[in-house]
Amino acid sequence: SFVQVLYLGLPGSNSDAPRKGDVFFLSGVAVLRSLRAAELAGPSAELSRTYSLFANLVALFRRQSLATYYAAQGRAVAEEVGDRHALFCALTLGQLPAFIRGGWLEAAPALEQALTLGAEMRNVHDCLIYDGVLAYISFNQGRLEEALGRFRSILTRAQRDDYLVPQLWSMISMGEVAFRQGRLDDAIAAANECLELANRTNTVDQNSRFQAHGLLASAWLRKEGLERARRHIDLAAAAAESGARLSYSPQFGFVGVAEVLFALWDHGGDQAEPAMIRLRRWLRVLRVMAFCRPILEPWDLLFRAEWNRRHGRPRVALRRLRQAMKAADRMGLTHESALARAEFGRLRSSRLRLESPDSG
Q: If you placed Cys at 214, which of 218, 226, 252, 279 could pair as Cys (CB 3.0 to 4.6 Å)?
């Protein structure tokens, strides 16, 4: 399946999932060879799908103009040869580079068209998957009730037709909405339900586990403190290592682990230094992933700001927060934008008080 390559983290079906984390690696050289061979053979459905795949490969290296070009080529070739399956691929897989850089106006209409086409072809499983991508567009733009309605609909249909991965992803996504709405008990319940289903079915999917354990880490940290929250960071990190770090919705996984490690650092004692060392490594991973997945960039900058603040570099921290605001605004990430502005205001006010002649 073309969706199961390049660490994309989107499974093609329940039956042909790869053995480790719904993810396996296809080298850039192999993709290039496939692309060259397909081009030599002339316009075909295979060439269209290869273009869509190659768009995702170059997007990993932030070659956005090239990604847009190859996504458009994939769609054009599919329309030229009249292959509906290739067109569905171009309208879904081919649009993921736009999704990961916050190109909502570009991605959403194509995904809507794909869902109509997929329904005509009775491609139920993939329609559920990409309906979830549309729901995440609403989620990322702060339209939480709209996102929640989509996720609920996906869950209902996935349960009716017994598609496991869409069930898992919609469950945890509903938990993420609940968390953003301040409903911590509902968020915890949704994450636990997701993990129970994942464990009961012994699924290889790691994306839902990464999101669920990250969400539980953040939620329990706020509800009861470190003791229950810290149980989830090793499990989240293991899922990330299995491929989930490069999924298209890994924010809660990264955030939950980072928040708990910052809290362990704050806690002091024997845990402080190991937590700081581990946090440094985790933030390095996040920085690399934010390069590959620009949608993570505001979180990378927010945590780098906090790291610099704690190391006595407030000017650097403020610069990172300005960058976070700019990145979030560019991509229409309303929650991240508001958070960066709040942190910027707090840090700036704190600096002004310290620098005031009357402060002493």
A: 252
